[in-house]
Amino acid sequence: MATQEDFSLHEVDPGLFLCRERFYVSSNQANIWVVKGSAKDLVIDTGIGLWDLPGFLKKVGAIGDKPYEAIATHVHFDHAGGLHQFEHFGIHKNEVNAISIGDNYEAVTFVNEGEVSKPPNEHFNARKFKILAAQPTRVLEDGDIIDLGNRKLRVLHLPGHSRGSIALYEEESKTLFSGDIIYDGMIIDWLPFSNLSDYTNSCQTLKALAPSVERVCPGHFNIFDGKTLKRLLITYMDSTQNCHKFGAGCLSAVSSVVLKGRNTNNVPAKCCFFCCCCCKCLCL
């Protein structure tokens, strides 16, 4: 059962909350956004899923007085790990299979012992942590509308970080929930199923939208405004030159081996994972 201490919760605006997993002490700690509507509530991203998120949100009154569902901005473990806790949830069509079978390679699952300051039980082993398979009740595509009654959010398919990455845009409040496509930190474009060309195209899409954005609620770190959004996008696109492409390619190769070694039955990759120091040095 969740306790209030398992998560932190902050009201950003009336009907908008920022929730975080208090005991996942990691640079991968994701933002969990709760958007309350007149007819329905929405939970955007779900964390790694070690603690009872819906139980906590109900206990503090953030959800539960009307229907609610979760939407994952992408299938990576730090955002989609808690989807199995929700009866109703959606994910982009490109990542339906990954969550349905619990594909921890595509979910880039990687948790270190030191990142979990309060294990959910005495038997917890970070090396054995996996996201659980779950069947989505909503399959998302670009342009879909999430209707909460008095609030409506549009799905933007923005591949690059992952092949099913999305953002959600609320036109009335000019708020963008950007997931991991853009945030004020180091951009990760070198994971399995990342694609530099797609990432650049997605950034161009967001750059065109930026004049209509006043607030960005990102997948990690702090909220920022539309001017900062444009600056971050331009900075990233300017950085994607040949040297960056070479570096991203090298990191992609290493991350692929490490993640296969941890999350699949690939024997050569497992040998590398358990015998090579890369798994200790790589920050995912």
Automatic annotation (TrEMBL):
Transmembrane segments: none annotated. It comes from the Eukaryota. InterPro entries: Metallo-B-lactamas, NDM-1-like, RibonucZ/Hydroxyglut_hydro. Residues 29-220 form the Metallo-beta-lactamase domain. This is Metallo-beta-lactamase domain-containing protein. It comes from Nematostella vectensis (Starlet sea anemone).
